[in-house]
Amino acid sequence: MLDKKRILKKLDETMRYVEELEELTPQTFREYEDSLKTRRSCERTLQMVIESVLDVINMLVSGLELGLPSDEEEMIARLLKKNILSKEMGKKLMGMKSTRNFLVHKYGEVKDELIFDNLKDNLGDFELFRKEVVGFLKSK
């Protein structure tokens, strides 16, 4: 059974992380690069916001009883197949997942420019995700 209240609560948490990232992210790459503390704070918060999105995806797949996917890619694919999320959002989610995996598993090799670009250019994707999920929940 779809737990709309729980999903909405997790979406609120997601957007709080985004707000934190907006406050944490410096205006220039130079400022970002010069502060290890800022870089690590941004990286960890970005990881948390992406994990929050993946939690919402998991709640949707589970609540809609779409089976037991073997991994996050399959969860996203199942939501796309049921037209719960747009294809464009599916591509964005795959990018988010890749970024999170890179942060978690290749921490020592993080490319600061790529993370900074994500912070400056892609934070709006989280709001788009929230809107798609909320739109779907309203239709149910």
Explain what you see:
This protein is 79% helix and 0% strand. With 140 residues, the chain is mainly alpha-helical. The longest helix is centred in the middle third of the chain and has 28 residues, at 36-63.
Instruction: Tell me the name of the CATH class.
Output: Mainly Alpha
Shape: elongated
The unreliable regions are none
- The H/E string reads HHHHHHH
End-to-end distance: 11 Å
- Mean pLDDT across every amino acid position: 95
Biggest sheet overview: none
CATH-scheme architecture:
Up-down Bundle
Features:
mainly alpha; Four Helix Bundle (Hemerythrin (Met), subunit A); 79% helix
Secondary-structure map:
Blueprint: H1 4-24, H2 29-34, H3 36-63, H4 72-81, H5 87-105, H6 112-121, H7 124-139
